[in-house]
Specification:
It is built from 9 helices and 13 strands. The protein has 298 residues and is α+β, with helices and mostly antiparallel strands. InterPro entries: AraC-bd (IPR003313), AraC_XylS_family_regulators (IPR050204), Homeodomain-like_sf (IPR009057), HTH-like (IPR037923), HTH_AraC (IPR018060), RmlC-like_jellyroll (IPR014710).
Length: 298
């Protein structure tokens, strides 16, 4: 099961956040929860089971599972872990005042009663740039713990401002986690160096019409294969990336060189000023003329 949410629609609510120092051998589960949840190992060791998959948990390890996915955690006898738990809904509304109405987020079911659902993915972004939140990832200890420690602190304070801070923290964490995962993928991909050259050349040719055959010329792959590799590595198609470069150049021409929409469209060879204007407004949020006028303001 997969839930896909566009970045622009992400509006999370932290429904519970806590820090738990476990006793030796302490365990919880098998259980399922009603919310999405992160479990972060701050200290110590233990074992984690999520949807039938087993992991050794150590400091810096982050686990994620969605609603209905069975899971179990057990602390080591000699070095029991310290965990942060954060339950959240990807889209939700904060209360106007006071605390979020709290409902127990855990529905414990054991043995044969454990539901069969073994995996639930949360995917952020559109089809071209989707980011599947990983079930397990090892992170630098200095990166994740401050987020979870602050979220736990804010949750204990019941005014709406602190719940808003919890939302802001989670948005920042998810976007930075996406960047870390993307960068790791780039570093590990054997085609990364070649595809980085493609990105550079697309930026350099942003004032030209897009040509799909560039992909085969620059990589010696079939253009469909090159496009698929590019999308896997960077989360968007070469054409989408090229349009982004083209619009960044258009903004520079409008603001810095004070060109009109028609002049900018012709300089960048968009084909027609109407196509340029529609694309610019859809992606930038205002017309080329309005953007040009904003460039004159202080």
């Amino acid at each position: 099961m997969e839930r896909r949410i566009g970045w622009e629609a992400l509006n999370p609510v932290v429904s519970y956040a806590n820090r738990l120092a476990c006793d030796p051998g302490f365990a919880f589960g098998p259980r399922v929860v009603k919310d999405h949840q992160f479990i972060y190992t701050a200290e110590g060791r233990g074992r984690a089971e999520i949807g039938g998959r087993a992991y050794d948990a150590k400091p810096g390890d982050l686990f994620y599972y969605g609603p209905g996915v069975p899971h179990r955690f057990e602390a080591d006898d000699d070095a029991p872990f310290v965990l942060y738990g954060l339950h959240f809904a990807p889209i939700g509304e904060l209360p106007a005042t006071g605390a979020i109405p709290y409902e127990l987020p855990v529905d414990i079911r054991r043995g044969a009663e454990t539901p069969p659902l073994a995996e639930a993915k949360l995917v952020l972004g559109d089809a071209a740039s989707g980011f599947a939140v990983p079930e397990y990832i090892s992170l630098p200890t200095g990166f994740a713990e401050p987020f979870f420690a602050s979220a736990a602190q804010y949750f204990r304070l019941t005014d709406v401002l602190n719940h808003l801070r919890g939302r802001a923290l989670l948005i920042r964490f998810l976007t930075e986690l996406y960047e870390r995962v993307r960068q790791a993928r780039v570093e590990q991909d054997p085609a990364a160096s070649l595809l980085e050259t493609v990105r550079t050349r697309l930026r350099e040719r942003a004032d030209e019409p897009y040509r799909r055959e560039w992909l085969s010329d620059w990589t010696h792959y079939h253009e469909n294969h090159a496009a698929a590799l590019f999308a896997r590595l960077y989360g968007q198609s070469p054409h989408e990336y090229f349009l982004g470069c083209k619009l960044e150049l258009a903004k520079k021409l409008l603001a810095d060189e004070n060109l009109s929409a028609l002049e900018t469209s012709e300089r960048l060879r968009f084909g027609s000023v109407h196509h340029f204007t529609r694309l610019f407004k859809r992606r930038v949020g205002c017309s080329p003329g309005a953007y040009r006028r904003m460039g004159r303001l202080v």
